[in-house]
Amino acid sequence: MDDEEARTRLLDAAEALFYAEGIQAVGMDRIRTESGVPLKRLYKVFPAKEALVAAYLDRRDRRWTASLRGAVAEAADPVGAVFAWLAAWFSEPDFRGCAFLNAYGELGTGPAAVLDVVRRHKAELQELLAEAAGAGREDLADQLLILVEGATVVAALTPGPAPAHNAAAAAATLMRAAGA
């Protein structure tokens, strides 16, 4: 097994475990066991748990953001597409809320590398919403971000599409009020 295969296996195991059970609840030994990567290779690839957590979140961010961007890019109503995409995500059987907010909730301002990934993810989401809202509507994008984040938190407590649908209705009201 080379470092690249080990990295992939470790990230796959870390993502499944961290998202389902939490970062602090899962130790490196459990990740090693689940991934089948020898301990020496694990620490060669990820010298500390912080590095593994940051890499897990970074990979999740790239995949999550690309998927949402893809849904929005093809839509006649980009803002509506955001909330339709959220409704589908909230309905997935393994949905456990926002991995980035979950990580921040667990770790706070602790590991700088993790906090950097969380902040970058939220900035990318803000940028995507600004593009969806249209040029010159930064205030509207800020409001849409609050709706997205609020719907995600509510859906973590009560999974299913309803929080996204409710947030979409609020977003439509905001868009009309902004003349969009």
UniProtKB/TrEMBL annotation:
Residues 4-64 form the HTH tetR-type domain. Gene3D superfamilies: Tetracycline Repressor, domain 2. Pfam families: TetR_N. The keyword Transcription regulation applies. The keyword DNA-binding applies. It comes from the Bacteria. One of its GO terms (molecular function) is DNA binding. Residues 27-46 bind DNA. Keywords: DNA-binding, Transcription, Transcription regulation. This is TetR family transcriptional regulator.
